[in-house]
Each structure stands twice: as C-alpha cells, then as structure tokens.
Amino acid sequence: MLWIIIAFLSGSLPSSVWLGRLALRQDIRGYGDRNPGATNVLRAGGWPWFVLALMLDISKAAAPVGYTYQILGIRGWEMAAIAMAPVLGHAYSPFLRGQGGKAIAATLGAWIGLTLYTVPLVGIVGLGMAFSLLTISGWAVMSALTAVFIYLLFFQPDPLLLTVLAGHTLILIIKHWPDLRHWPGIRPFWRRRKT
Asked: Tell me, what's the pLDDT at 62?
C-alpha cells in the first residue's frame, strides 16, 4: 500500500506545469489543448524544454515502478496497482485539483519500469506508425496499445503485464474519449498540388 501511494504521488507531480512556470515564466495550460503535459511545453518553449518535460514525465512513473518491480521484486496484484498508480496520478493530479495530462508519457514510464526497453520500443514504433496514418491522436494511441497487446500475447504472455495493460488502456480511453468519439480519418500519403 505504501508503494502504491508513493507511485501515485510521484506520477501526480505536475512537472510540465512547474517547468513552464519556473523556466518559461508562463502557464503552459494556456496553449494548444490546454493540457498540463509535455506537448504544451513544446508549444510554449520549443524542443529543448519539451524533451526535458517529457523526460520528467516519463521518469516520475519509471522510477517507482522500476524500483518496486526490478529491485524489490514485487509481483502479483499489488504490482499491477503500483504500475497503474503513477498513470492515474498523472491523469488526475491532486496538485491540479484532479486535472491532469493525457498520461501517455507516464504510461511509457511505467512500461520502462516493468520491461526496460521491449514494450516501450513496440509502443513507440506503433505510435509513430499510427500517427503517420491516422488524423486523430486518440486513435493513434489506441493503435499503439493494440500493438503492445499483440506483442505481449505472443512474446510475453505474463498475466501481470496483461493486467497492467488493461488498466492503462482503460485510463487512456477515458482521457482520450473526446477523440475516440470521432471516427479516425486516414492521413493521405501525398497531396495533390494545385495547378
């Protein structure tokens, strides 16, 4: 229970918002989709600050999950709860009165903590391919999660990992529901030039 609370609080730290206030002297929630996440740090301050914000968002989930899973060797339902806690914390941060980001970076961090590079690599490749094909980001995220599910099913069919994936998928569906209400469009490979 202690590690679930620690993981939740770690994930709930609004690092992108704090980075925006301290380094950029502005509220990143005034940009784009008004989300307190790394993407709006990119809009507010550019690529270097985005990379830093992304690393912070990933690390705040990777650290507690990786320590409990890789070092302490915790397994079972409690590990599933620990792995979901930072993602929930990021999505519904008590520091932001229950508001939070879309939890993609925190989800990636949790999977780094669980599997180091294998599942994150599958997810990143799947997300990149989906973003290049689909016009709605929520459906691109769902496509990446589907790729991770297929990978786990064939190569790492661990009930713990599948349980964590189910929990993360539910959180991401809720956070991306406005996108998922719309049918995904296919991004054209080329555009005709006007003559």
From this structure: 98
- CA dist list (Å): 95 to 17, 80, 139: 10, 24, 28
Give CA torsion, residues 104, 127, 54, 162, to 10 deg: 40
Locate 38 and state its tokens: 């790394």
C-beta of residue 148 within 8 angstroms of C-beta of residue 123: yes
Give the C-alpha separation, 51 to 55, whole Å. 6
3-state secondary structure of 88: helix
In this structure, are residues 110 and 164 in contact, taking their beta carbons and an 8 Å threshold? yes
pLDDT in tens, 95-142: 999 989 999 999 999 999 999 999 999 999 999 999 899 888 999 999
The residues of the chain scoring below 70 in pLDDT are: 188-195
72-91 residues labelled b (16+ CB within 10 A) or e (exposed): eebeeeebbbbbbbbbbbbb
CA distances from 82 to 69, 75, 174 (A): 9, 10, 19
- pLDDT of 189: 57
From CA 63, how far away is CA 32, in angstroms rounded?
A: 29
**Residue 192 to residue 46: CA distance in whole angstroms:** 31
Q: pTM for this one? A: 0.91
pLDDT of the residue at 193? 46
How far from the centroid of its chain's Cα atoms is residue 58's Cα?
Answer: 8
The answer to whether the CB of 14 falls within 8 A of the CB of 95 is yes
